[in-house]
Amino acid sequence: MSAVDNRGGGSPESRLLEVEDLHVEFRSKDGTANVLNGVSYHVDAGETLAVLGESGSGKSVTAQTVMGILDTPPGFVTGGSIRYRGEEMLTAGEERRRELRGENMAMIFQDALSALNPVFTVGFQIAEQFRFRRGMSRKDAMAKAAEMLDMVKIPNAKQRVKEFPHQFSGGMRQRVMIAMSLALDPDLLIADEPTTALDVTVQAQIMDLLDELRRERGMGLILITHDLGVVAEVADRISVMYAGRVVEKADAHSLYKQPGHPYTEGLMESIPRLDMKGHELASIQGLPPTLTNIPPGCPFHPRCHRAEDACREKVPEFHDLGLGRASACHFAEELISRD
Ligand SMILES: Nc1ncnc2c1ncn2[C@@H]1O[C@H](COP(=O)(O)OP(=O)(O)OP(=O)(O)O)[C@@H](O)[C@H]1O
Ligand code: SF4
Ligand SMILES: [Mg+2]
């Protein structure tokens, strides 16, 4: 079966990552910030999960915790589970986590320039992984590095391995980062806003490349982004985060057609329906809560135009809306059955 046929299949063999009820807090002298308050999501082989949400909703902290690179202290995991191919990551030792990083799961970041070392050629930086993790000779490792640059469609790869990061444009640097993250052939890739620093045309090219690589390699891709246009084009499923929780999850088509949570609705509002590319999430009135003092009841209630008394008192449960869709709103069923 091809990787594409596997999309969202959800069989035990294709389930790459399962995050369940993840809790993370950041402690400081000013108090404890409840940054993740029960995040759950999963990704299967060959599919793209998009993670959406305003700044501070916990998208990157979740990704860092999955990768085992959470800044501890001040960040502490206080509950939940992260299973990679069924293996619990939160109790795996640091050695095992290191072994899995790069080989099995990799992450690319928004800012390729600061992630690359300016004093080494890009070839050297990619080749390091082949030398230290695969025991290759310097020459063979450089040849592999050139192959990787070629794979991410950097023209004239054999020459360009010898160049330094500053000699590459922003888009080309991001391609280098993708090459570096895929060097050891991971089956799970987390891309944390991989295109925000780039102009719109280059963003589209990088997204097309990631999508193509995902398809060719049967990788699971977690795409963290603010760009709804990108999400509409490439995501199979979407998880929407608010104040450290997933508040709605759905396949991309259903979510765009009819959001099942007022927060998702807010994010989608005022987005031009045609040519959405490059449009940021709409701003919703008010601000996300201070994570040291999350409001009682539904955390979204101070900003929600649908809020009723119950919303101020009772934390909404996750309502199962069928076909893998769910929403943490008291009125979820009503919302999706509107005309
Ligand atoms: N190292 C840290 N120390 C203290 N607080 C942190 C740290 N890293 C993240 N946080 C806090 O955790 C919360 C969630 O941050 P996170 O970076 O996950 O948000 P995000 O959803 O990725 O936002 P953005 O869209 O801006 O990238 C924020 O309130 C942030 O201030
Ligand atoms: S539970 Fe109430 S406040 Fe929360 S999103 Fe739904 S309607 Fe709004
Ligand atoms: Mg982030």
From TrEMBL:
Compartments in which it is found: Cell membrane
GO cellular component, one term: plasma membrane
Listed PROSITE patterns: ABC_TRANSPORTER_1, ABC_TRANSPORTER_2
Gene3D superfamilies xref list: P-loop containing nucleotide triphosphate hydrolases
InterPro entries: AAA+_ATPase, ABC_Ni/Peptide_Import, ABC_transporter-like_ATP-bd, ABC_transporter-like_CS, Oligopep_ABC_C, P-loop_NTPase
Chief site of localization: membrane
Cited Pfam families: ABC_tran (PF00005), oligo_HPY (PF08352)
Keywords: ATP-binding, Cell membrane, Membrane, Nucleotide-binding, Transport
Annotated membrane topology: Peripheral membrane protein
BP GO terms, sorted: peptide transport
ABC transporter domain span: 17-268
Gene Ontology molecular function, alphabetical: ATP binding; ATP hydrolysis activity
SUPFAM superfamilies per the UniProt record, alphabetical: P-loop containing nucleoside triphosphate hydrolases
Family: Belongs to the ABC transporter superfamily.
The protein's name in its UniProt record: Oligopeptide transport system ATP-binding protein
Annotated organism of origin: Halopolyspora algeriensis
Lineage, top ranks: Bacteria, Bacillati, Actinomycetota, Actinomycetes, Actinomycetes incertae sedis
